[in-house]
Design a protein that fits this description.
Layout (H helix, E strand, L loop, with lengths): L3 H10 L4 H13 L2 H7 L4 H15 L4 E4 L2 E4 L1 H25 L6 E5 L1 H6 L1 H11 L5 E5 L2 H9 L5 E4 L8 E15 L12 H6 L1 E5 L4 H14 L3 E6 L2 H9 L4 E5 H9 L4 E2 L7 E10 L6 H11 L6
Parallel strand pairs: 3-4, 3-5, 7-8, 7-9
Antiparallel strand pairs: 1-2, 5-11, 6-9, 6-10, 6-11
């Protein structure tokens, strides 16, 4: 039968380990030990035991158990940033002696940036750093911010002015929204008036995307209302639909540059003021940026185009 002294002695023999932190971070990101076990290549029972060891070492619970889900509590939130930073630093130490980056560089980008700006930057980076693999997740801006906030990626690239108390936004490149139409669209000739724009049908990005947020602010401020016929999750799909004369599109100039040059789309002339915006790079305030992330950040800002 155990007594308090024996329990205390057993607890004192427990030590914090990188394996425990790895399982904890994986569980925080996945929401269950079953999903976390797959990420760290362990059995579910081993992952659960490792997580229990960590909570015993710290003397606190890190998750609230809600059904089968494990949700970070206040203690877990306090630990997550530092745990992720320690794991990144451990990877840097391993890389110091192996001559290679121990883990892939994890990026998340909005669709416009991920599809039209980052590919060239990633290709140039890979040529210069062949031993540094890159994993690029493309999603809308709100999902990118969430990925950075949850320490799932090292760097995020977004289009909007989204804010988050735990994140830092760094201005990156300039962008401009443009209204596009098929070459034979009725409004493709003379400058379109405000009434014509209100009465036209529009093909826009889905809500939650940086492009949609910027388009709503710009168009609704000057038009009051618009008729949204289609909401799509891809700029490419919007361009194809608009090119077939279905409606007007409002997209980043980066996204439509090729279609405009090839004559598949035309930029509509209007009396609206220019819709300029800043693209941004997002990092977590509590995250240690490893060597690869710092180098890639410098790589992206070497030639950022118009300030």
């Amino acid at each position: 039968m155990s007594n308090g002294k024996t329990d205390q002695s057993a607890g004192s023999r427990l030590r914090l380990s990188l394996r425990q932190l790895e399982v904890f971070v994986a569980t925080a990101r996945a929401g269950s030990t079953r999903a976390a076990a797959e990420r760290v290549s362990r059995s579910q029972s081993a992952a659960s035991a490792t997580l229990a060891e960590l909570e015993a070492v710290l003397g606190v619970q890190l998750f609230d158990r809600v059904g089968r889900r494990l949700l970070l509590n206040e203690n877990g939130h306090a630990l997550l940033g530092r745990a992720a930073a320690l794991l990144d630093e451990a990877g840097d130490l391993q890389a110091l002696f192996s001559g290679e980056h121990a883990a892939p560089l994890r990026l998340a980008a909005s669709f416009t940036i991920g599809e039209y700006l980052l590919p060239d930057l990633v290709a140039a980076w890979t040529r210069r750093h062949p031993a540094s693999p890159v994993r690029l997740q493309i999603a809308n801006s709100a999902e990118v911010v969430d990925a950075v906030a949850r320490f799932e990626v090292d760097l995020g690239f977004i289009e909007g002015a989204l804010t988050h108390p735990e994140l830092r936004l760094r201005g990156w490149r300039s962008d401009e929204l443009v209204i596009v139409a098929a070459p034979d669209h009725p409004l493709a000739g003379a400058p379109a008036g405000l009434r014509q724009l209100r009465q036209a049908e529009w093909v826009l990005r889905e809500r939650g995307s940086g492009t949609r947020d910027a388009a709503d602010r710009w168009l609704l401020e000057h038009l009051g209302e618009i008729r949204v016929a289609f909401e799509l999750g891809s700029s490419e799909a919007i361009k194809r639909l608009v090119a077939r004369g279905v409606g007007l599109g409002c997209l980043s100039r980066h996204a439509v540059a090729g279609a405009l040059a090839q004559g598949e789309l035309v930029e509509l002339r209007t009396r609206l003021p220019a819709a300029e915006r800043r693209l941004a790079i997002v990092t977590h305030r509590d995250k240690h940026l490893g060597r690869a992330a710092r180098a890639f950040l410098a790589h992206c800002t070497e030639d950022t185009g118009p300030a």
